[in-house]
Amino acid sequence: MSEFKSGFVSLIGRTNVGKSTLLNTLIKEDVSITANKPQTTRLAIRAIANRENSQIIFIDTPGIHKPKNKLSETMVDTAVSSLRDVDVILFLIEATSKEVGKGDTYILNKLKEINKRVILIINKIDLVKRETLLNLIELYQKQYDFSAVIPLEANKEKYADIVLDEIEKLLKPGPKYYEEDEYTDQTSRQMAEEKIREKALRFLNDEVPHGLYVEVTKFKDRKTTKGEEIYDIEATIYCKRESHKGIIIGKDGKMLKRIGQTARQDLEKTFQSKINLKLWVKVDNKWDENTNILKKFKYTK
Hints:
3-stranded mixed β-sheet
């Protein structure tokens, strides 16, 4: 039997390249929220892949983008900071890229500074022809000496073992950091907040900019009269404008109800329990400058 390996792996890339989708596919759990919007991931979430001969701990980082405020500065700092403390880095790009753009050049320069083992992941290969893909691989291999290059579709499970096998090859012998039945180090509150925000982002489309923040103000479990376990969860969705509040609530409260119902259904699957979810919407045009809130998005070892 081969020696047990373990290590930490960071996912890095520009916004909306599929990092969270890939992470969920590798873990086979909805650990990181996914939405068709840039900068969905704000937290450096740890997710655990337990295999027969290894334990791989992933850190899904916020997408690299040009900071516009204190929140986005914190997010980019989180993404870059995580690179220094991991064993392997997955660098995600899109197969549709025609060149090494400014964002990817910035990431490549950071990778050269820290000199880590990097696997290049090329996502969305279903959108390009083979020749285009080969040209892109050649273009990036001239920029960095990658340990491996894996073209894939991030949402397809058939690629999961290919990625995990390549990571395992690069890890050193090590202990199990987490129990086998654990797949994330997020708290229950964090998972609830992220799931509610995911549903809001999906249903609101482009009507409300990315200025949403969800805070769970109550998280308590109790027994029903029938003896069933139930969680009482109350959360506030913060937005930056009064007009956004109206959109989030929707006509006759329909949009907020839709967000709440779908979030509750997902949370019941996650916690394997009944959920009593109540949502409120408040306006705070400076929530993304609040020091206490920004602390939540900072990377910690």
